[in-house]
């Protein structure tokens, strides 16, 4: 099939590349000329395992191309995917301006039947609004008796996770397709089923529903996952007070199939480009219809507090003033296998520690460059604080002469360090682990003062 992807962010790029890998002819469009030039050289603007190889292979095979030319994009694809960003507007709602820009371009240039697929995360009703916008432009272009070319607007939200995006796309649990009942939309449904059939590996993974429900499903899924995380963080904090070990509790509750065992890890709070933004947007949708979502407000509030947990633990141990103290930070990205720093808990932590007077030695296996850019941005008004950050060369380099080591992101490389070497370079053997990477008993036996999120073994 001929396919066009508008937007070469995480979702757009991974979708385009994976659809090309299965034999489709894919053209990816972005208005950012620099990004397109980078992709045309088969370089990848984001860190995502496996993506580079797939881009190189599919460009070489002639199934994948990149361009800034919107009209060419519209002409190319029978299916037009909109995968542009929907950032939070000032009031917390999703800003849909990029979605409507693309919809406008499709309506302006199309001359034959098009299936317009919304992959961006958009609030309930956005599909209808896109449909209306496209129909309005087409009516202006075909004012006479001759009918305008047909089209359908499909909601097809994406559920991939950064760091395992290729695998998630290639082996989806489910593919949500939301559409109306018109003949155009039924035709679009057949096309979507055919497009996604190879991803089912013998099973039908497509769940068809109406468009509004599909849009809602995306937000409800992320809100549920964010709720699980905040719930577990609150349980872990309570476990600390009651001297209960949260780890067997996690295993014990996860064994119930109604609960399930994934996404139950307490930590430093959720970050990234999705959960915080989607929880806020859903709250906003509730407010708009006079139904404040109290549970989600609490989820967000618990998460804000959790980002400060490691500081609270340090304050309990060392008192509130960190002047003259040096801390090592392992991990800056919001999670492993990505260089994404959006809403990363490390950003909150870094500021709080610096404001209390600490000197920081930070290390991340992949996100150093991105972290430097984001921290410079966050602290542009505080050069005095920025001057107290040292970007280390290795985990041990970060830990050298530090009064405490803080573990923020659970990269594999931090899971089994040389503990003797680590203890030797630390000024004090204090480890504050925001990801519960080690066994508390073994750490104590090794001579560490080891603080965790709810591990009291
Ligand atoms: C999330 C969803 O998992 C995807 O299904 C969804 O498609 C995506 O958002 C999106 O809407 O685009 P992602 O943000 O890439 O994916 O990352 P996750 O692996 O879900 O992690 C999110 C945050 O939760 C991270 O900060 C992570 O550290 C935290 N987390 C996750 C926990 O604290 N505990 C857990 O048990 C799991």
Automatic annotation (TrEMBL):
SUPFAM superfamilies (alphabetical): 6-phosphogluconate dehydrogenase C-terminal domain-like, NAD(P)-binding Rossmann-fold domains, UDP-glucose/GDP-mannose dehydrogenase C-terminal domain
UniProt entry tagged with the keyword rRNA-binding: no
Pathway terms, separated by semicolons: Nucleotide-sugar biosynthesis; UDP-alpha-D-glucuronate biosynthesis; UDP-alpha-D-glucuronate from UDP-alpha-D-glucose: step 1/1
Keyword vocabulary terms for this entry: NAD, Oxidoreductase
EC top class named in words: oxidoreductase
Catalytic activity annotation: UDP-alpha-D-glucose + 2 NAD(+) + H2O = UDP-alpha-D-glucuronate + 2 NADH + 3 H(+)
Assigned EC number: 1.1.1.22
InterPro entries in the cross-refs: 6-PGluconate_DH-like_C_sf, NAD(P)-bd_dom_sf, UDP-Glc/GDP-Man, UDP-Glc/GDP-Man_DH_C, UDP-Glc/GDP-Man_DH_C_sf, UDP-Glc/GDP-Man_DH_dimer, UDP-Glc/GDP-Man_DH_N, UDPglc_DH_bac
The UDP-glucose/GDP-mannose dehydrogenase C-terminal domain, residue ranges: 328-440
Keyword field contains RNA-binding: no
Name listed for the protein in its UniProt record: UDP-glucose 6-dehydrogenase
Species for this entry: Acidovorax facilis
């Amino acid at each position: 099939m001929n396919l066009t992807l508008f937007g070469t962010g995480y979702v757009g790029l991974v979708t385009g590349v994976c659809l090309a890998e299965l034999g489709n002819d894919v053209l990816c469009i972005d208005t950012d000329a620099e990004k397109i030039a980078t992709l045309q050289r088969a370089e990848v603007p984001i860190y995502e395992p496996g993506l580079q190889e797939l881009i190189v292979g599919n460009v070489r095979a002639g199934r994948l191309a990149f361009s800034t030319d919107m009209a060419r994009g519209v002409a190319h694809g029978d299916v037009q995917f909109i995968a542009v960003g929907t950032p939070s507007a000032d009031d917390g709602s999703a800003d849909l301006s990029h979605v409507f820009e693309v919809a406008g371009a499709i309506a302006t240039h199309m001359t034959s039947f098009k299936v317009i697929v919304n992959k961006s995360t958009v609030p309930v009703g956005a599909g209808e609004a896109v449909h209306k916008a496209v129909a309005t432009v087409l009516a202006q272009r075909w004012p006479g008796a001759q009918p305008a070319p047909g089209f359908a607007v499909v909601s097809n939200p994406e559920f991939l996770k950064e760091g395992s995006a290729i695998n998630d796309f290639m082996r989806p649990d489910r593919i949500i397709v939301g559409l109306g009942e018109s003949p155009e939309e039924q035709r679009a449904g057949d096309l979507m089923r055919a497009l996604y059939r190879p991803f089912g590996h013998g099973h039908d993974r497509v769940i068809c529903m109406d468009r509004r429900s599909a849009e809602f499903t995306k937000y409800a899924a992320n809100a549920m996952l964010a709720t699980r995380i905040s719930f577990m963080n609150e349980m872990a904090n309570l476990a600390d007070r009651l001297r209960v070990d949260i780890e067997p509790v996690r295993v014990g509750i996860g064994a119930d199939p109604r609960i399930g065992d994934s996404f139950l890890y307490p930590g430093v709070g959720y970050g990234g480009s999705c959960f915080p933004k989607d929880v806020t947007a859903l709250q906003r949708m509730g407010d708009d219809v006079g139904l404040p979502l109290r549970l989600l407000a609490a989820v967000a509030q618990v998460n804000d507090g959790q980002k400060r947990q490691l500081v609270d633990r340090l304050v309990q141990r060392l008192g509130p003033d960190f002047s003259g103290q040096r801390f090592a930070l392992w991990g800056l990205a919001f999670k492993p296998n990505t260089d994404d720093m959006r809403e990363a808990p490390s950003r909150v932590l870094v500021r709080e520690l610096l404001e209390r007077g600490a000197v920081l030695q930070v290390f991340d296996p992949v996100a150093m460059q991105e972290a430097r850019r984001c921290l410079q941005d966050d602290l542009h008004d505080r050069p005095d604080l920025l001057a107290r950050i040292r970007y280390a060369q290795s985990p041990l380099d970060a830990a050298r002469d530090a009064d405490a080591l803080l573990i923020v992101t659970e990269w594999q490389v931090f899971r089994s360090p040389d503990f003797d070497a680590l203890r030797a370079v630390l000024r004090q053997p204090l480890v504050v682990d925001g990801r519960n990477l080690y066994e508390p008993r073994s750490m104590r036996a090794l001579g560490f003062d080891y603080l965790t999120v709810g591990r009291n073994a």
